[in-house]
Amino acid sequence: MTMNPKDGSESLVASVGKSRITSVVYVPASNEVMGVADNEKLVRVNVATKQVTTVTIALPPVRDVLISDLVVDKNNNLYGIRDDWSGPQQILTLVKIDPATGNNTDVKAFVSAETWYEPVYIPATNEIVGITNSGKKLLRLNLTTKDTVGVDLPGSTEIPCRELIVDNKSNLFAYKNNFFSINNGDVTELVKVNAVTGQETLLKVLPAGGEQDVNLLFVPQWNEFIGIWDQSSINRINATTFNITPVTIKAGPYNYIDIISN
């Protein structure tokens, strides 16, 4: 679907079947929206032609191995995180994926007791940065050196990070909430994160009592963070004033899973 954040109207781009498509990204070089279906298939939608192509991602022929969390770098290379639970320890591998064939090559593998999720790409440092340790830590992987660095987030002990966002100047932000806490009331925040030190700067306390259903993204043309709130409205957050403009979305017989911008 395309969605107009100014009035909430939407229009169909293409129907992609009944499988849930997750980790949706936009690849400028091919003008395609891509996502993962059934943890093993890459679904590609050409924005211009509306053509839908499904490619099986090459995975080891064992159970408990899946692909999640796609991310695109500044050179239009597509990456994914391969989770391997087939052995006694979880092995996470960042892989580079060929969208045409589904073949992939390992970039870096490491043993982890925690998942590595919500990865984003930071052009200034050529790093893929994701969340680990249940929202209390960052894991940075440099695509040039292949080095990994863990960065604790001391400000996220009580209110963990759920999503990461990067603006057009390589600044890193995080959406945080403690909706699963039994000891505290709902707290939802947008913060700026220093990827080197883990220091957080509070930018905006977001509405509580609902849930940010769909990932926040930064739209440089409007200088806004945009996300879908509680399946009922688009929240447009000005990146300078941090004022929120809610836009009611037109309800349909479906839920919103991901939003992206080209």
Task: Explain this structure.
There is one protein chain. The chain is built from no helices and 22 strands. The chain has 262 residues and is mainly β. It has a domain at 155-262: Neuraminidase, CATH 2.120.10.30. The protein has a four-stranded antiparallel beta sheet with strand order 3-4-5-6, with no helix packed on it. Strand 8 and strand 9 form a beta hairpin. The mean pLDDT is 88.
- Identify the CATH class of the domain at 155-262: Mainly Beta
CATH fold node name of the domain at 155-262: Neuraminidase
Q: What fraction strand?
A: over 45%
The CATH homologous superfamily of the domain at 155-262 corresponds to TolB, C-terminal domain
Instruction: Point out poorly predicted stretches.
Output: none
Structural category is mainly beta
What topology emerges from the helices and strands here?
Elements: E1 2-3, E2 10-11, E3 21-27, E4 32-37, E5 41-46, E6 52-56, E7 65-72, E8 78-84, E9 91-97, E10 104-111, E11 117-122, E12 127-132, E13 137-142, E14 148-152, E15 161-166, E16 172-177, E17 188-193, E18 200-205, E19 217-219, E20 224-229, E21 233-238, E22 244-248
Antiparallel strand pairs: 1-2, 3-4, 4-5, 5-6, 7-8, 8-9, 9-10, 11-12, 12-13, 13-14, 15-16, 16-17, 17-18, 19-20, 20-21, 21-22
Give a short overview.
This protein is mainly β. It has no helices and 22 strands.
